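Dear Dr. H.,

I hope your travels went smoothly. While you were away I took the liberty of generating a structure for the chain from your last submission, since the lab meeting agenda had it listed for discussion. I wanted you to have the full record in hand beforehand rather than looking at slides cold. The sequence, exactly as received, is reproduced here:
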Amino acid sequence: MTTRSAYDVAIVGGGHNGLTAAAYLARAGLSVGVLERLGHVGGAAISAEAFSGHPTRLSRYSYLVSLLPDQVVQDLGLDISLVSRRTASYTPVVRDGRATGLLVERVEGEATRESFRALTGSDTEYEAWRTFYTDVAHLGWAVAPTLLQPLPRASAIRSQVSPTTWNDVVASPLGETIERRFADDTVRGVVATDALIGTFASLHDPSLIQNRCFLYHLIGNGTGEWRVPVGGMGAVTEALTKAALDAGAEIVTGAGVRWIRPGADGAEITWHDGRSERGLTAGTVLANVAPWVLGLLLGEPHDESTKPEGAQLKVNFLLDRLPQLKSGLDPEVAFAGTLHLGEGYGELLSAYGAAAAGQLPDPIPGEVYCHSLTDPSILGDVPPGTHTLTYFGLHTPASLFAEDPEATRAEALRRAIASLDEHLVEPIESCVARDADGNLCIEAKIPQDIERDLAMPGGHIFHGDLEWPWTSDRTRLSTPAERWGVQTSHESVLLCGSGARRGGAVSGIAGHNAAQAVLESR
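The corresponding predicted structure, in token form, is as follows:
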């Protein structure tokens, strides 16, 4: 329960960005109160025992970390460990009736080159791969150091990379770039998937939202490496919570905010604790909610047509054992990284076309992760061979599930499993553990679940379309909030979640930047 009726800063939403902002601001000596609607903090960054009778704690929603800057970890003294996966990716395919695949090591070596050669018939595609990702890395090196600084101008970033790199990643639809740079359908698909995770778009979309998604997936800490948090995503939330509380911030759970009313000298917040309506005032309110939700809290007109739409199918499995692959690759190598399914370039284009026409894709493009190969600590006391498996399906927008959510969920799950079974010696369900009631340990989440559980409108995991992590040379940057990319139409209300200019994914960047805007304005 809050001990104050007034704070220097009140934060609406106790997700990881809200906790990050709270820790920075409280460490700076400000009074900070965090109001969280749910009975726990963390938002999507939580771990949970999803299956009865099993102690394994799954990263139930978000599942990997790339964008969390090392500086935030150091600044806040976060006791977390992010571990590298042994494999970057494996893509099983059937070529000329033969089960094979494309292996990419996390540190690329001869096995990666040989895999490209065996699949494509020469070294041409691998050399194109190396050249392209070297170019992308140069852009990542230019952008990454700016993520915790005031917004850079586009010209400042552009001056640090070649004209070819800027054109291929920033100026032209990524589909054109991929088709120009690569020839093999599988290689093209592996490149393209980073543009579509959490983003429903054509690879040729002129808005370039797919390019922006691609960039965010490849700039974290200047390397773009996606790492596994030891102890699950909940360990990140626990560390941030401790940092905020130790600094003196107050956190209230079960606090559903009803209204935010900005005024001349701050803002008033009305919230409900489950028994009665309560209120507080703050000099500044940080909104760790989607901008669309913030509009509702501010009393703006409700416009359903502007609501974001998520487009992912998330499936959690608990396995008794890892399945064998038809290609013969060791499953502890194949499943250690990102396993691509139905993500050939042609399949991605077809899947988008089907979904855009209102049809569930078949196959559904998706990828699989086995976090317990990298972090066995999440398993708990379980029999040898037990593993977690996470499937993330693309091009499954919320609108496809609207008419009959349960029937469509069941069909989407069937198709996701079929895309995995195509490459396995035995059906995946023969490897799935059973819970205390004898049911298969399989949990499928559709966008409607994400919206219901986490109040992310439309189930959009980024709270809306991502924006470039810089601003145009003509944009006004006259206030601290504008300079840090966290402004709203109200001076006393700032964004601090994934809907901020440099939000999206588990990063803490938006929370850090909102805190810096507050401190700069004082």
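Two observations you may find useful: The longest strand covers residues 277-287. The two ends are 27 Å apart (CA to CA).

With kind regards,
E. W.
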